[in-house]
Amino acid sequence: MNLLDAIIGLSYGFAGLLSVENLLAVFIGAVLGTVVGVLPGLGPVSTMAILLPITLSMGPAAGLVLLTGVFYGAQYGGSTTSILLRIPGEATSVITCLDGYEMTKQNRAGAALTAAAIGSFIAGTIGFVAVTLFALPVSRIAPKLGPPELFAISACGLIVLSNTSGGAFLKNLLMILIGIMLSTVGTDVITGTIRFDYGFYELSRGIEYVPVLIGLFGMAEIIQWTLSKKEQPSQVAKVRICDLYPTREDSRRMLPAMFRGSIVGFLVGLLPGPGAILSTYASYALEKKLSRNPEEFGRGAIEGVAGPESANNSALAGGLIMLLSLGLPFSGVTALLLGALTMHGIAPGPTFIAERPEIFWVFIASLYLGNFVMLILNLPLVPLFVMILRIPMNVLMPLITLICIIGTYSLSNQLIDVWIMLAMGVFGFLMRLFDFQAPPLVLGMVFGPLLEVSLGQSLIMFHNNIWGFWGRPISGVFLGLAVLAPVISELVRFYWWRARQSAISNDQPLSN
Amino acid sequence: MVPRDAISAVFFTLLGLFYYTSSWQYDLNINVGGIEKPGPGLLPRGLAIAIVLCSLVILIASLLRSRNTKEKRFKAVCEDMGLQKQNLIPSILVILGIVVYLLLINFTGYLLTSIALIMFMSWVMGERKWWANGLLGLGSGLFTYWLFWMVMRVPLPMGTLWE
Fold first, then answer.
1. Which chain B residues contact residue A436 at CB under 8 A?
2. Same structural domain for residues B106 and B56?
């Protein structure tokens, strides 16, 4: 029944996708994403944040398609510069530099690029099949969750996120708390009281998270770029089309790595946190462990390119299931997609698929098409995309700044939003300097209203008895996990520390 | 030298204390028709306490750590991020340029102010040819005007100066 529903929905989605606006969104998203991926400094999340207001003038499906295309395109583009220049365009492509660039030095750049592109395509397709099959059943479970369960799942997700976002747990937790704090400015949903406006009328409507997002990701990036050293890329290796065909040996080694990477990426993507980045490290470690020749890793092993490049593409699919079915965005990218949906008056979550199937299925269909477009577009155009690196950034940066400003203004035609964006840009840059992460703050802001409403409703249900959460199995288990997550994380870190210490004392390098 | 984490922890402790005192004006519980409901001050007060506690733990841990190990100096952090001291003034000028832009936009209008901002930013970022700055400013201003005003129908400030 579910499979039939999915097939019917998908065919409906492909039919709906055949409009000029949607097809253009697929194409522009793919190209723009690749360009962004190639350019070091400007990340996909920053670009998605900057483009978010522009999607207001598009249909909801086209807007989502464009933003997702940027993310996927950036994964392709990032791997190209990692392999050819040892410049990771994206954080998700850092690990690709290790073996990808080594392959370029051995005149095997074509095989590495093919491994990255085909791996991304296979992983994307596997991930999207999983979204197609599982999003609908998961959304049917969701209505059974009451306010206590929603509160417990969200709280647990945020605590786990603090552990997986990189950096120190307490710093991430602090950022989440600051994000929730910002979400309390404005009207309290339960009582209607206006809070923390400090006499400014503009603050009584609350702080929207999109200006905060554009500030923390876009503006902070511009400030950091202005302060940083400007470097021109070195000579780019030439790649001919005939070089792109992998040898039989390469194919034999890379295909299993692609499938393993796809599964690892999808599973990591289900967890709260920057799944795309974490999945590349998890996949690389797995490939090295399973390899018969682990000593080749770091010296041009094709599995070291195929696995991580597949993993980073399927990771988003896991995050999409949580967003589309439950309305829970547990990463910066899915928080942005949530922003795109809410700007069009759509609330993702259990009712989204049932009430707006025309958007959901067109979006799913566009993922398949976008993935295919990127495969046929990117490999032949590699030399062209690499040429983009020659565009001076001091031409692009002023234009990007202006788009940040006017894009923020266009959200509600209020200059206060631009002031907030600018302030958050400066704050975001200082956060980077003090080693704090921006995504936990944004996710705290996104989850703040949900946490407050579900906490309030739960306390009304429990007659203000906070222990009521422990009396319900799902909320009890998730709150228990939230409490245990930091302890488990510390134990794992302690185990690794001891393993490393013993390896050092035995004078043996730690192989994995 | 004061550790980096200690500086940020002190800032967030003060922010948490400010938030806590601000939250005192809102009730913890309210009674609606005989039913006790959580008030608008419940979450903010809990949050403020959590922010202060988190910051204090970071502060103490940082101070204890700094006795045993040397924390990375700011200079080293900036080097890791590729930041350069000589670019400090240009980046401050960029921020100030945006501040002036926001103060002027309602008076001088979107197009003129945007062209001026782009030209200024391009100059600050190292482009010294006046015609290149002018072309970039004009091109960017007209492009964004076309995109936001004509395509997206965003009501851009036209400027009270021209009324």
1. 8
2. no
